[in-house]
Amino acid sequence: MSVWVWGISDLLRGVYKPHEYGRVILPFTILRRMDCVMEPPTGADRRAAKQNYGNTSGLSLPEIVEQGSDIHTNLLKFIDGFEGDAKDIFDRFGIAAQIDKLDSEGLLAPVVQRFATLDLHPEAVSNTDMGMLFEDLIRRSHHDSPGEDFTPRDAVALLVDLLIAERRTHIAATNVSQRIYDPTAGTGGLLTVASDRFRDLNPHASLRLFGQEINDQSYAVCKADVLSKGKTFGDIKLGNTLIDDQFSTYSGTKGFHYVVSNPPYGVDWKSHAAEVKAEHAKGDRGRFPAGLPRVSDGAMLFLQHVVSKMKTPKKRLDDGAFDWLDGGRGAIVLSASPLFNGGAGSGESEIRRYLLANDLVEAIVALPAGLFTNTGIGTYIWLLDNTKRPDRRGKVQLIDAREIYTKMRKNVGDKNREMSEADRRRILDAYEAFEDADPDVSKIFANDAFGYWLITHARPVPMRYVVDEDAVARVVISAPEASDVVADLIGQEFETAQALFAALGAAATARGGAVKTAHARNAVRAIGQPVDEHENVTYKGTSLTPNHLTETETVSFGYAGPDVEPDYDRAEAECIAAYMDTEVKPYYPDAAVDEKKTKIGYEIPFTRHFYRYVPPRPLDEIDADLNRQAALVMEMLRKVEAS
Question: Residue 16 gets which letter from DSSP?
Fold first, then answer.
């Protein structure tokens, strides 16, 4: 259908440039959808259809075409006839200006006639299909715009199925009331599929959809989409979620039962740094309590926002734990960078630390490349839960679905792969099997498995303190005030800096004076030189110079030795001592840890856990390929010479 609708752009050529086609096609598609949904538009039939909008003009697009006398006037009358906030949708698109332009160019009548024949009634086009149509039209209108991306419906279906997998029975219960929120709503695709899934499980479920979107056109489409489901307009807001939370009262026990999001990748928040830092300064009362990522990528701000909006539980069970059905769940699509960006102590690492230490990460699913229309980067679904079911507590499930896909017959933008229902079922089965799942696809880890200490250790540099002419020359430059005293010690050698320091004091006294402590220290530094043999020391195969004797190492939580299962009950000091004894001191026996510099870090090395060794091709195969290529080159050269 999207091909047919976009085909209307043939009428616009010459008057509109290709990137401007959406200015007409998008609002007119929405207008026709609302026109079809409103049949009949008033009275009891409207209430029975759960519509919360109508039109007072008494017109419809087919009637406007049929009357034919003044399409321009009647069309504007039709749009002005929408009640309440419904008109805001068309104001966002500036449809009145487009109507004037089409009319002045003689295109209004043919455009309206084409749309009037389009059947977008919900019985002909479901909400899900309508959402797909909207998104495809927007994709076509922004096909040359980097960063404009939409979550493909196959990925949306997987995300929603994973989100509700453990609560299907609960959702199917009668009189269940749920709040679903998307802080980066786009055109409403995630909300649409979530709503449909809930309705499939329980047609009588009480659902309230909430969303916020920064882009005017996407906001208008989302608003129209939610409107067609009979939901209130006030639950879809326009604005920048990071700095203007339109649902600030929804948090804690009043938060959302389900939060879904596919935030834009690589969002630079430098221009909003003051507002973001102020929110972070609120601590646990704010949305970014864990830390701030680098300004060039705000993905982990959205991640924290999702967590802050998940409903916290009220009920406690007999054992003091929370009822795992009473909390909130979240699902967010992110790039790979939030898994590992930032070293120990960085904002990104602290955010991961917060999420894992508070047992908020339930599962992470790696999606196939080529799944999205405008990007080929790797993507991951993070499943979040603030009241995990008992057997999942303290654990994270990693699911590698990068090779679970179906090749598409025809590319859609950068999208050349999709996840069929069978593909999604396989992933869902692995999630539900949990510890019994295929280990090639699913692995279970303790939360602490992703934590580590970044330690700094150093080896004392062996020094020699020989007072000769060269040493005096160095002192003249570094500590001229002590040069005369140093000259009195020419020919002497000292084993330690302390011995040389004492000798300088004695020499100054012998002269009938004194040398200032600072000058004596500078002189000692100038005289001291690393021993020659130390300049070629190697550590783990790396040649070290005196400037490289401070090293950093990562020590995993629970470290008990090489090839030994980690013991997460071991204290930090025990783990670090065990690491030093087995991994460092055999090469570096006098190394010592500088405890003041130890930092805690967290990362999730997803690909490392699912690494599969692929042996290189046999040499005879490689040689055969090279010979074939060489033969082709020689043949081409012969043709060139013969011509």
Answer: B
* DSSP annotation of 26: H
pLDDT 10s digits, 437-477: 999 999 999 999 999 999 999 887 778 899 999 999 999 99
Tokens of 353: 């630390």
CB contact at 8 A, 553 and 583: yes
Cβ atoms of 519 and 496 closer than 8 Å = no
Tens digit of each residue's pLDDT (9 = 90 or more) over 562-588: 989 999 999 999 999 999 999 999 888
Q: What is the pLDDT of residue 39?
A: 78
Q: What is the value of pTM for the model shown?
A: 0.80
For 117, phi and psi rounded to 5 degrees? -90, -5
Pairing of strands 236-238, 206-213: parallel
Cβ burial 80-95 (10 Å sphere, 16+ → b, else e):
ebbeebbbebbebbeb
Task: Judge residue 189's burial from the number of C-beta atoms within 10 Å of its C-beta, 0-12 exposed, 13-18 middle, 19 or more buried.
Answer: buried
pLDDT in tens, 124-166: 988 778 877 887 887 787 654 444 456 788 899 999 999 999 8
Tokens of 483: 């040069």
What is the DSSP track for 470-519?
HHHHHHHHH-GGGHHHHHTTTT-EESSHHHHHHHHHHHHHHTTS---HHH
Task: Identify the residue whose tokens are 């050698």.
Answer: 493
